[in-house]
């Protein structure tokens, strides 16, 4: 009973400490994008380890843990969103979204996190 109360308190604390997730805009080009092998490069430009996932419209996903100043390249087979965009979602340690955006894979995707007074501010090179 005591451990359940402690667990609940920790979860509530984690939820209160996390920033509100940024609202992602729907891709500018509606409809279905390219189908096939979609490759992308993620680069962590922040001073902390980042967690997240890349998702295609056809629901294929790549989950990552990216340490500071590291990069990862990966490919998924599926269908992109309109305008040949993929969804990038940064999450906290509970898997709750902190930031999301839609971006193309024609360039490296730089991800940044900066600590501010009210918490962390997450940005990514989303075009």
What secondary-structure arrangement, pairings included, does this model have?
Layout: H1 2-17, E1 32-44, E2 50-55, E3 61-66, E4 71-81, E5 85-91, E6 97-104, E7 109-116, E8 119-124
Parallel strand pairs: 1-7
Antiparallel strand pairs: 1-4, 2-3, 2-5, 5-6, 7-8
In short:
This protein has one helix at residues 2-17, and strands spanning 32-44, 50-55, 61-66, 71-81, 85-91, 97-104, 109-116, 119-124.
Return the structural class.
mainly beta
Uncertain runs are 9-13, 15-23
Beta-strand portion reads over 45%
Order of helices and strands: HEEEEEEEE
Keywords: Signal
Signal peptide: 1-24
Characterization of the model:
- The protein has one domain: Immunoglobulin-like.
- It is built from one helix and eight strands.
- It is 13% helix and 51% strand.
- With 127 residues, the protein is mainly beta.
- The strands form two sheets. The protein has a four-stranded mixed beta sheet, with no helix packed on it. A four-stranded antiparallel beta sheet has the order 3-2-5-6, with no helix packed on it.
- Strand 2 and strand 3 form a beta hairpin.
- It is elongated.
């Amino acid at each position: 009973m005591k451990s359940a109360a402690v667990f609940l308190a920790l979860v509530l604390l984690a939820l209160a400490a996390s920033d509100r997730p940024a609202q992602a805009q729907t891709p500018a080009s509606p409809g279905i994008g390219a189908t096939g092998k979609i490759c992308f490069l993620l680069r962590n430009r922040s001073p902390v380890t980042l967690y997240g996932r890349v998702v295609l419209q056809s629901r294929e996903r790549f989950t990552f843990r990216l340490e500071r100043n590291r990069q990862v390249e990966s490919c998924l087979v599926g269908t992109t969103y309109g305008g040949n965009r993929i969804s990038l979602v940064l999450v906290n340690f509970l898997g709750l979204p902190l930031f999301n955006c839609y971006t193309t894979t024609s360039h490296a995707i730089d991800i940044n996190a900066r600590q501010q007074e009210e918490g962390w501010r997450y940005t990514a090179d989303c075009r």
